[in-house]
Give the backbone structure.
Amino acid sequence: MDKRWVLYPKTSEDLTEQLLNNRQIQNREKFLNPLLTHLTDSRKLFPEIEKATERIKRAIKNKELVYIYGDYDVDGITGSAILWETINFLGGEVMPYIPSRHSEGYGLHTEALKHLAKKGAKVVISVDCGVTAIEQSKLAKKINIDLIITDHHQPQESLPKPYALIHTTSLSGSGVAFRLAENLLENFGKSSDKQFFRNLELASLGTVADMVPLTNDNRIIVSNGLSLLSKTERLGLQALYQEAGVGSRIGIYEVGFAISPRLNAMGRMQNALDSLRLLLTRDKVRAEKLALNLSKINKDRQDQTKRVFDHAKSQIEKKFSEKSFLIVESENYPEGVVGLVASRLVETFYKPTAVIGKGEKVFKGSARSIGNFNITQAISTQEKILVSHGGHPMAAGFSIEGKNIPKFRENLEDIAKKDISDDDFIPKLKVDWELKLNEIDQNLLKIIKQLEPFGIGNPEPVFLTKVLEIVEVKRIGKESQHLRLFVKDSFGNTISGVGFGFGSQNFTKGEIIDVVYNLRENTWNSRKTIEARIKDIKKQISI
């Protein structure tokens, strides 16, 4: 797919300043020095955090049964583990409850709360869900449950009125849970205990997995938590690292592409409780069995994702390729993979996309967006024909009866046609800085590294170099799907680059190209070199 290169206007001769300006970073000191002491005061973030803390503290002292009601994705699972482990550490009677994606679906549920009340729950703490649970909050009061909602999703016009509401959209769900747990530990005089750092590693895992902007407090959590993940004492994570084949250094890539998919797979395909057990277990044999099972389930998830993607892609190409909002549905799409497939379809067609599969009672859909199109807002306009809905500006989930899908498709198409221009359907590749090859050195790498970790809101710096001659071209990978280029400029400066997925493109020795890329340090046989990770190539003319 052709991309439009957009070079940021030059605002500084200093590369660090330019990169910070491009990312619209206001607090430079906090960004470049992401210290835990720079975290926003939790009392400013959450007006009701003291009320929640005091209630949990009373429950711990009086041995009242507390239930942690968590979402089934990685963000919810890690946040649930944080609060369960903290309350257990402080001496509380605490149990987890993770709803089934297939039989219950996302969010706080009336029947589940009634079930927990019968189990003897006096306090229920939601994790990564609940900000839209208005009726459930009313019910909790009637059945004598003190409901504490912790969530980070977009609220509706009216907020629920539980015992306490701990909500912000600036953190991940696990980040919100982490701050509540931090306040609890502080209240018990345990703020510097090892448990704080055990919580921090899980919060960083959940924050990366949920793809929230890695700026401000999220950046602080992840910057400090990733190093803890690399040396974790959690037997479950150690077993999962071994099963996933990741090394001793855990970074954004390892979390996003090896660890999170395995933890997520259980919630997508079966029940996420085993993922929670993996994070909490102190039994090595059990940890290894759970990690092996998660990997097996993840392989099944990969196979089903590919099957559904191939079918959905063919349906779009046959029926919907001209649509502004792509919607595909089938009773044969497992609801656990529809979000993954929607993401891949957006990458393929670069249009807002919803994929709908058959749940136990109604159809379940997941949607992903492009650019500035707020997909949750668009879907919320269809509230009258939906069973439920919620999400973020770029990702949403919903339930719908099959008879309403045609109307849903028609209405979303009308909204997209109105709100999205033709230009919006052309993916933009933002370029931070134009470089000459002789400017690429270790000092440049140091500037780049000080901005790590990279992610949403803080992308890896992207560079452009023009007028490069291809000296050597080689296709690599099992199916020759990748491209390795060796290029030089007019002064004889050279660099090697790899373009993943570029193997099908036709490039030959002697051609002149412009290249957009990231820079990475590559170590081979103890020798360090700087390599380009190619993001796009445009041909000029041959010499």
About this structure: The longest strand covers residues 463-476. Residues 284-320 form the longest helix (37 residues).
